[in-house]
Amino acid sequence: MDADPREIIDTGDRLLAEYPELFTEQYETNTRLMQQLAGVDSFRIQIRLTGYITRKKRTENSFDR
């Protein structure tokens, strides 16, 4: 199964909106959270979502400084 980038972005943004305080700038932490929250069967989609969310959190926090 392959997801187009728009699906990754939409799903990532939805998860960030639902759980803004749960996700961090740490990829490993977000990976564990993604396994619990997303319910995605595909490992590739899971790592793409984790990467998107991690990059988004790092970008958010770099603007806050």
TrEMBL record:
According to the record, the signal peptide region is none
Report whether RNA-binding shows up as a keyword of the record: no
Question: Molecular function terms in GO for this entry?
Answer: structural constituent of ribosome
Give a yes or no for keyword Ribonucleoprotein in this entry.
yes
Q: Which GO terms describe its cellular component?
A: ribosome
According to its UniProt entry, one GO biological process term is: translation
Q: Which Gene3D superfamilies match?
A: Ribosomal protein S17e-like
Keywords on record:
Ribonucleoprotein, Ribosomal protein
Any coiled-coil regions, as ranges:
none
Q: List the protein's name.
A: 30S ribosomal protein S17
List the lineage, top down. Answer: Archaea, Methanobacteriati, Methanobacteriota, Stenosarchaea group, Halobacteria
